[in-house]
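example protein:
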Amino acid sequence: MESIEYTVTGMTCGHCEQSVAEEVSRIDGIAGVDVSARTGRLVVTTAGSVDDASVVAAVEEAGYAATRA
């Protein structure tokens, strides 16, 4: 398993965290998601190959922006 960190902008609360976590966890190959609105940090644990573009797109689907840290 590998952990990959992203910086997410626009999150302000627990609901924001939940929205991002729900979208990202739907990606095939994601084994775990840890997200913090306070730090703007998203860490995904992969159980396979995961494309950065897929994670960024999922975060955007939730209404926020992300870049790999």
Summary: The mean pLDDT is 96. The first helix runs from residue 14 to 25. Strands lie at 2-9, 30-36, 41-46, 65-68.
